[in-house]
Design a protein that fits this description.
This protein has 692 residues and is α+β, with helices and mostly antiparallel strands. It contains 23 helices and 26 strands. The strands form seven sheets. Strands 1, 2, 3, 4, 5, 6, 7, 8, 9 and 10 form a ten-stranded mixed beta sheet that branches.
């Protein structure tokens, strides 16, 4: 969880966490409920709240937490509850919100990771509830608004409510905008969670909030706010039946590539039975909550659920995203960044409007609204293309220069939100027609580690190229050492091997190199893989905000995982026709150097990088990049790079190359200028300090 809304409260919550993580004592959930009960009891004495507010917490804690000699209770840190209440008062946190903070603080770190439980800041919950409810007409006659309540008293649901942060935010919005009673606000809320302890806390928090308004603790209906699985069908064991007007919340992020959060076989079977192919593979559970929410919300209603950015781009989520777009219009996107949660995950929230399924593809085109940060602040409006029922490899170019977006491809929307200029390229083929591209995997990374040592030389200029194997056998290498190049040694147009230190396999190196003699003897198969990379090539970094590569014309270096080796074919089509006078390596370099190609890649693969604004360009993605339709400006750009060796000593060369390649791709001059300015700002971080 975050450090809390203030230093004093943060210190108290961390103390609760230390207590809850002790070796001895009751179960984690019971411990967390007891922590809330202790704080609630102290707050009730301070504020004069009725004792009945504590009953759900006592009932939830008693079966789980028993201390020796004290049935139904547990030993709690003396004075900590009162201290937490005092800190909360000083930090202007109301008791209803404080209960959820304490509950999540008292859960162990492993319990939070397994369940994807992380505190949602109040400013984020309020902001997302506001944009979810804005402009939605109530579907329930009993809750329709009047002249003094233009938005109506909407029915709002959270299918993974945790301790109720979003439901509290919705209640507060109703109170501020409609001026109705606390009881009426609570009656408009729906929610469920699989954690019975969290449900008890949420119900108590809502009743306590209503008491602060009405002087009476109005409890939500046991059917409306209850224990249940938000991914199950509405009804018994699942969320309260719909339809509702708005679904908003922060479902658990459960990455299926991590054992601790992976679904069980039984869970996979159930989810595939409900969602079909959309639930197959490694799709994050958070994305499935979007699909489930569409079964709850009425036509014209809105769904806003927090997601990790990876759900917008992950290949395994493509079918789920496509199914979502067939049922909802994607109206906008909130980009929260990586500072919202203590887990450090970059988060976002698609804004979906439920439409008739008969609306079909195209329902998501037109104005696209953007919000950013915490609190949730409007950050612009863009026009985007409608999704198209085609795969990404065959999607036609957009006539208006906007992002071409196959159904379920949301990366372009994330890129638009980050300020990447949209660009349409007129292509005549794929880069794979001119080159091969190779990136190693775990076997190459861990296999090479024992054979890497410091190179006895000082610079690349004095290194000879090793011999390659012939006839499938392992030759004796001409030289012993081959420099190892990691992504950290790549800058625009330059290999910085020997110039700056780098980390590899958990160690810091000045001049890392592969011992070819030892490798040939110890692992002949890996040796053959290595020496096949020792040929003229381009080496390309994979986690960057623009395409970053450098030439290895001497074929000297070994690319370390995940560096991509781009190896043009001397017998390719680039040696015929108008390209005959230019080596293929420079034709390929001109494509990779083009700012319009960087914008294209950033749009297609936004959100796949490890850092904000970065994209992941692997071997498969490199080969899929389009080649230009106009040959002559492409050839001029290649000759320009060949004349300088692609070293950015003169940034004017890169700018001129960009102009030529924009012409080659048929990009209008005004759009090309926008792209070059964006590229120049992003490229600055990928230039050596001496070139700035």
């Amino acid at each position: 969880m975050q450090q809390g809304p203030g230093t004093g409260l943060g210190r108290c919550l961390r103390a609760w966490q230390r207590w809850a993580s002790g070796e001895t004592g009751p179960g984690r959930v019971g411990t967390a409920v007891l922590a809330v009960a202790a704080v609630a009891e102290a707050a009730a004495r301070r504020d004069g709240a009725p004792a009945t507010l504590l009953e759900p917490l006592a009932a939830a804690a008693a079966p789980r937490a028993v201390a020796p000699g004290r049935p139904g209770t547990a030993e709690l840190p003396a004075g900590l509850a009162a201290e937490t209440v005092r800190a909360a008062s000083a930090d202007a946190v109301t008791v209803p919100h404080l209960l959820g903070l304490v509950y999540e603080a008292a859960l162990s770190a492993s319990a939070r990771r397994r369940g994807g439980v992380f505190y949602t800041p109040g400013s984020v919950a309020q902001g997302l509830v506001g944009l979810a409810c804005d402009g939605v007409a109530g579907s329930s006659p009993a809750l329709d608004g009047s002249a003094d309540c233009p938005d109506g008293l909407l029915v709002v649901a959270d299918p993974a409510m945790g301790s109720g942060a979003f439901l509290l935010a919705a209640a507060e919005r109703f109170r501020q905008r409609c001026g109705v009673s606390g009881a009426a606000c609570v009656a408009a809320l729906r929610g469920c969670d699989i954690d019975p302890g969290a449900v008890a806390v949420a119900r108590t928090a809502l009743a306590w909030w209503a008491w602060t308004i009405d002087d009476v603790p109005w409890w939500p209906s046991p059917e409306a706010v209850r224990s249940g699985d938000g991914l199950a069908l509405p009804g018994p064991g699942g969320p309260p039946p719909g339809p509702v007007d708005v679904v908003v919340g922060n479902p658990p992020f459960l990455n299926q590539l991590q054992g601790v959060t992976a679904r069980s076989a039984a869970s996979r079977k159930l989810l595939q039975g409900r969602f079909g192919d959309a639930a197959k593979g490694y799709v994050d559970t958070a994305l499935l909550f979007l699909l489930a929410a569409l079964d709850l919300v009425a036509e014209g209603g809105r769904v806003v659920l927090v997601q990790p950015e990876s759900t917008l781009v992950g290949a395994h989520g493509a079918r789920a995203r496509a199914d979502i777009e067939r049922r909802a219009r994607l109206e906008g996107l909130w980009i929260g960044g990586g500072d919202v949660f203590a887990a450090g995950v970059r988060v976002c929230a698609p804004v979906l409007r439920r439409v008739r399924e008969t609306a079909g593809p195209g329902a998501s085109g037109g104005p696209f609204r953007l919000w950013a940060g915490a609190p949730v602040i409007p950050s612009g409006r863009k026009d985007v293309d409608s999704p198209r029922e085609s795969d990404s490899s065959s999607a036609p170019a957009a006539s208006g220069g906007g992002p071409v977006r196959p159904m379920g491809e949301w990366a372009p929307l994330l890129a638009v939100g980050r300020g990447v200029p949209s660009v349409s390229l007129r292509g005549a083929g794929r880069l794979g027609d001119l080159t091969t591209a190779t990136a190693g995997f775990r076997d190459q990374f861990y296999g090479l580690a024992p054979y890497v040592h410091e190179h006895p030389g000082a610079a690349l200029s004095g290194i000879r190229r090793p011999a390659a194997p012939s006839g499938g056998s392992v030759d004796e290498p001409v030289v012993r050492w081959a420099p190892l190049v990691t992504s950290g040694l790549l800058r625009l147009g330059r290999l910085r091997w020997g110039e700056v230190p780098v980390r590899f396999a958990g160690r810091r190196w000045s001049r890392p190199a592969v011992d070819l003699e030892a490798l040939a003897e110890g692992d002949p198969s890996l040796y053959r893989w290595v020496v096949r990379r020792l040929r003229p090539k381009l080496v390309l970094a994979t986690q960057t905000s623009v395409v970053v590569f450098a030439p290895d014309l001497g074929g000297l270096v070994v690319p370390s995982v995940p560096v991509v080796a781009v190896e043009p074919d001397d017998g390719s089509a680039a040696r015929t026709g108008p390209f005959g006078a230019v080596e293929p390596i420079w034709m390929v370099a001109a494509v990779l150097a083009a700012p319009v190609v960087s914008a294209h890649a950033a749009t297609r693969f936004a959100g796949a990088g490890l850092s904000a604004g970065a994209f992941r360009l692997g071997a498969k993605q490199v080969l899929a990049l389009p080649t230009p339709i106009e040959a002559e400006p492409w050839r001029e750009a290649a000759l320009l790079l060949r004349g300088t060796g692609a070293v950015p000593a003169d940034l004017g060369v890169w700018q001129r190359c960009g102009e030529l390649m924009a012409q080659a791709y048929g990009v209008p001059a005004d759009k090309a200028g926008t792209v070059r300015r964006w590229w120049a700002a992003e490229a600055a971080r990928h230039l050596p300090a001496t070139d700035l």
